[in-house]
Each structure stands twice: as C-alpha cells, then as structure tokens.
C-alpha cells in the first residue's frame, strides 16, 4: 500500500485553463457561496469573504484563484491603507458571463442581454406582429440570436442562459399564445434545443423584483416593497431576500393602460412604449389625475402593509420615461415620509432585465 | 507582531545573476527585504535562503544539507511561532542529476506542506498559513549551466501549473512568481534586482490578501 498522503494530487478544483464556463454540475457549493457574495457586493476582500462564508483563508484563496482563472472574478483597484501594502478587493468580472432575458408585455416582447454585473448590453422591444412564427420561420429565436451578437464572438461561450419572464396565467394574452404556443414547458424545451442554451422561466413581476434584489438598487436591502408600473400596477413584498406575492395575477388598473385610456378620451392615442404625447398642455389635468390615482393606490398598499411589517424601502420600477417616473417617485416619497423610495435599475425593460438574472441564480449562486 | 518565514533557494538568498557564489544583493534589496518594507513594522520577515536547496533531495554533489525537507523542521521550530510560511523552491530539483519531471517536484513541495502541518508551528500550536510560490521559469540560454540543467528549461515552464494543482489539492495559497518577474539573462535562472523588487511587492499584496483578522489599517 502506498502512503495515500503522497498519492497524486487530487485538486478540489483544478483551475480551469480552457476558456468558457465550467459545466454547471462541477460548480461546488463553496464556489457558489463566494460568487453569491460577490454578486451582492461591489468589492470584497478575501478576508471579508472568509468572515462571511466561514471558509478558511486557504480555501478562499483556492476558490478565488480558480474563479479568477475562469475569468468570472477580477482584482479591483488597490485601496491604500495607513500601513502595509494596498488592499486589493475582489469583484466580478463584468465580462465573465452574459445572459439573455425575454419578457412579454402588453405592447411588446422585449429582449435584453446583460453582463455579469447586470449592465445592459442590448435591448430591443419587438412588436408582437414582428414575431409571429410561420411554418418556416421562428422570429423569436432569430431575435434572441440577433441579440447575443452583441457579445463579442470570443466571449459567446460565456452566455449562461436565457431567462423568460412569463406573465400570470390570468394575464397571458393571445399575443404570447401565438408566440410560444399554449404549452410553456414545451416552448422552453424548443428554445433550449434551438439555441443550445439553458432556459429558465419565472413570473415576470417576480423576475423584475429579483433583478433589483440581485444587482439593482435593492442589492443591499433585505426587506423592501417592489412596485412594477407597467400596463397595470403590480406589487411584491421582499422580506429577508425572499419574494412574496399576493393572490395570483393581482394588479390594479392604475398603470400606463389606465393613463392611455384616459388620454384616449381626449382624443390622444399613444402606446406607452414609445411616442409619449405632450403632457403639459391640455393633457395635464388627465396626467395629474392619473398620477394621483397611482400614488394613492401605492400609498394604501404600503400603509396596509405597515400594520404588519416594518419596511423602510420602496423600489418603483417602470419603463415610463424617466421624467414621468421621477415625478411619480418624488410624489410617493412625499406621501410616505420616513420611507426611502427609489427608482429601479432595470428601467430600460424591467421584466426582461430581471429575467436575465435567472440563469445567474441557477448557475452561479447558492439557491 | 506577525511573522513570516521565507523558505527558498539561491533566489531567496539573493544570489546575483552570473556572479560569484558570495556576491549577494543587499538585505533590503532581496525580495524578502522588499516584503518586510512593504508589510511594515507589524510583520517580521524571516529569510531562509540556501543556494542549491532542493525540495526533498540530498544532493549527491553539493551535499545532503541542500535537502529542504531535512532542514525545514529544525528551521520551523527555530523560528516558531510562525503565522505564514512561504516556500519558493523547485529550480534545483530540475538538475539533470535528479532526473525529476515537474510533477515530482510538485510532489516534493507537497511533502514540505505535510511536514509544516505535522509540526504545526503556528500560533498556539496551529497550522500556519502556507503559500507555495512557483519560481519564474528559466531562460533558454543558461550559459555554462547547460549540462547541469539539461532538460530543465521545458520542465521549469511546467512548474507553475504543477505547483498550482498541488496547492489546490492541499488547500494552500499559491503564487506564480513568473507572473511578475523573469530570470536575468546573465545566467538565465537567477533573478536580478528589479525582479526581487517586483516579487517582494507582489508577495506583500498576496500576504495582505490572505486577510489577517486583528489587522489594523
């Protein structure tokens, strides 16, 4: 019997020297733990990683080094202390991974591509009419394929997957049905095999909240209330990073559809997606009244909630133009003193952006 | 006060490239001296560099005292308590007389790690932090050392990978010196003054990155 201490080395994880991502199955729990921590913090020293994970300094060293070689993690800028050498924080490499998100809204299907830190690299809103499949063409697949071209060719094997933001069953419209068929799991399998990427699905509002929680404005918040102002107003409650929703499909008709309908009565037709009309002239009273309806609804939700839990932060996510969103945010903040109200980070397309975070959860994070 | 032992060969001793055996860089110019300067007064850097030191071999020509393994234990015990042990060896194991592939040299490094763990010269009898440093690879032209180091050039380029696999396997820190410095063309396997400086600075950052709980910044 040889002395097994001197058997050939059997590394915990031989640093991956090939380019591209390791197969999901080989990513250990400890690696996921370190990656989760880095996703939630901009720059973290190895000491902090050790303290927060309970891993030994040498284990952290092995894991960080291997993640560094895999290109998922990079050294940040040196921070000079009073004595001793500069401290170098570790951070995620933005180009370490990419992900695709697709959402199906009231007026359009959105495709986004994000990098590893949630930066939007590509966004396009497709009218449903453009995407209807025919016998020979699958335009949704083509749209996704066109989107991933934004990722430089040599990094394309770093695309972690595709997240689909799926509306509540109650609100699944004919458009989505025509697009992906009645059977979501088989649509998922079809896209997976056509594009060779894993596909993940989640409720769209939950996905948007999850994006804000992972790498958006709520990254450092364990508890917050999330409002999504799209065609309708939806809400989620996040407690201890866990996302809760009320009864399925619950939403209020104080969203952008409601504004569009009110403006239609004035003879102003618009699709909230793009061309917004002038809201300062004759439309002003209608616009003001709509904002009052929306913020009153938000206030009553929050006030009811405050009877049971003490939340101090609200995230408002909407693809409405920044001026509209900011005005509404300021008005809500005024109505709810003592509560911090912020606009979301994924405002270019909140649901698709949030959905793009799904592959990261599954492939890099502790569940 | 924390202490780090730098256990190495002629490149830790500070041998000047292409010069006589007693010609040595000054204390503060050698990488361990640079490390001391960078880490500051809260650290004591202990230098243990011996020219010709191997990982685990008695050298039939240069003598049994070149064996790093037999000297490591008394050395650790003499300097305990140690918070960190840095080992940079491997080049001398590549001499033709030992006929070792790079993977065996890594096994030799592994033995030293086991010995440190067994002796546990860390605070309160614990195992100190251990860092394996792969020496910078040799240059192609090693002058009159050609026959002594026959076949060593290729192997010296494999050391970093083999050492890292060993470090990963044993769960110890690792640094590739070749990532920050090169050997000096004067003899092709010793490092010059500039290399000592960059290696010392880089290792100070590595030492710091380990993270020391009671560290005051």
UniProtKB/TrEMBL annotation, chain A:
Pfam families: HTH_24, ROK. SUPFAM superfamilies: Actin-like ATPase domain, Winged helix' DNA-binding domain. InterPro entries: ATPase_NBD, ROK, WH-like_DNA-bd_sf, WH_DNA-bd_sf. It comes from the Bacteria. Belongs to the ROK (NagC/XylR) family. PANTHER family: BIFUNCTIONAL UDP-N-ACETYLGLUCOSAMINE 2-EPIMERASE_N-ACETYLMANNOSAMINE KINASE, ROK (REPRESSOR, ORF, KINASE) FAMILY. This is Biotin operon repressor. It comes from Kaistia hirudinis.
From TrEMBL, chain B:
Residues 6-196 form the SGNH hydrolase-type esterase domain. It comes from the Bacteria. GO terms for molecular function: hydrolase activity, acting on ester bonds. InterPro entries: SGNH_hydro, SGNH_hydro_sf. Pfam families: Lipase_GDSL_2. This is Lysophospholipase L1-like esterase.
């Amino acid at each position: 019997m040889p002395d097994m201490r001197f058997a050939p080395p059997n590394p915990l994880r031989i640093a991956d020297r090939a380019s591209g991502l390791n197969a999901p199955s080989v990513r250990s729990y400890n690696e996921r733990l370190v990656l989760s921590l880095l996703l939630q913090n901009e720059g973290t020293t190895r000491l902090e990683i050790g303290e927060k994970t309970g891993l030994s300094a040498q284990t952290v060293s092995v894991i960080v080094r291997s993640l560094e070689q895999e290109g998922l993690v990079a050294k940040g800028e040196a921070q000079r202390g009073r004595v001793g050498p500069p401290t170098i924080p570790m951070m995620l490499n933005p180009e370490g991974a990419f992900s695709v998100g697709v959402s199906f809204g009231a007026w359009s299907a959105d495709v986004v591509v994000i990098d590893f830190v949630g930066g939007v690299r590509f966004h396009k809103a497709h009218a449903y009419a453009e995407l209807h499949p025919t016998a020979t063409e699958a335009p949704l697949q083509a749209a996704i394929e066109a989107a991933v071209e934004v990722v430089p060719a040599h990094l394309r094997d770093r695309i972690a997957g595709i997240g689909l933001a799926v509306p509540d069953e109650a609100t699944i419209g004919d458009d989505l049905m025509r697009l992906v068929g009645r059977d979501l799991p088989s649509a998922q399998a079809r896209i997976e095999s056509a594009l060779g990427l894993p596909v993940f699905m989640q409720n769209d509002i939950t996905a948007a909240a999850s994006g804000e929680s992972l790498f958006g404005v709520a990254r450092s918040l364990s508890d917050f209330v999330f409002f999504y102002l799209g065609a309708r107003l939806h809400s989620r409650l996040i407690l201890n990073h866990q996302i809760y929703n009320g009864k399925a499909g619950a939403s209020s008709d104080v969203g952008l559809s409601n504004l569009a309908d009110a403006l239609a009565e004035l003879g102003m037709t618009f699709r909230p997606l793009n061309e917004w009309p002038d809201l300062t002239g004759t439309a002003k009273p209608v616009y003001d009244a709509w904002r009052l309806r929306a913020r009153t609804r938000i206030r009553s939700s929050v006030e009811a909630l405050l009877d049971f839990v003490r939340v101090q932060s609200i995230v408002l996510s909407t693809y409405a133009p920044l001026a509209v969103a900011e005005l509404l945010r300021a008005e809500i903040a005024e109505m709810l003193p003592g509560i911090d109200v912020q606009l979301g980070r994924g405002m270019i397309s909140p649901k698709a952006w949030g959905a793009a975070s799904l592959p990261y959860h599954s492939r890099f994070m502790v569940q | 006060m924390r202490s780090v032992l730098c256990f190495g060969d002629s490149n830790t001793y500070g041998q000047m490239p292409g010069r006589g055996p007693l010609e040595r860089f000054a204390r503060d110019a050698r990488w361990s001296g640079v490390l001391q300067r960078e880490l500051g007064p809260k650290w004591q850097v202990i230098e243990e560099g011996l020219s010709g030191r191997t990982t685990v071999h008695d050298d039939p020509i240069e003598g049994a005292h070149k064996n790093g393994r037999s000297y490591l234990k008394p050395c650790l015990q003499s300097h305990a308590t140690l918070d960190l042990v840095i080992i940079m060896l491997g080049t001398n194991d590549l001499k033709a007389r030992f006929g070792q592939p790079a993977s065996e040299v890594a096994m030799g490094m592994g033995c030293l790690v086991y010995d440190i763990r067994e002796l546990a010269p860390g605070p309160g009898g614990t195992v100190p932090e251990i860092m394996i440093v792969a020496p910078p690879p040799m240059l192609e032209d090693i002058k009159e050392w050609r026959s002594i180091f026959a076949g060593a050039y290729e192997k010296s380029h494999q050391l970093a990978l083999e050492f890292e696999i060993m470090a990963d396997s044993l769960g110890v820190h690792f640094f590739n010196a070749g990532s920050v410095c090169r050997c000096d063309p004067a003899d092709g396997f010793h490092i010059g003054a500039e290399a000592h400086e960059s290696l010392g600075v880089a290792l100070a950052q590595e030492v710091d990155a380990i993270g020391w709980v009671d560290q005051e910044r």
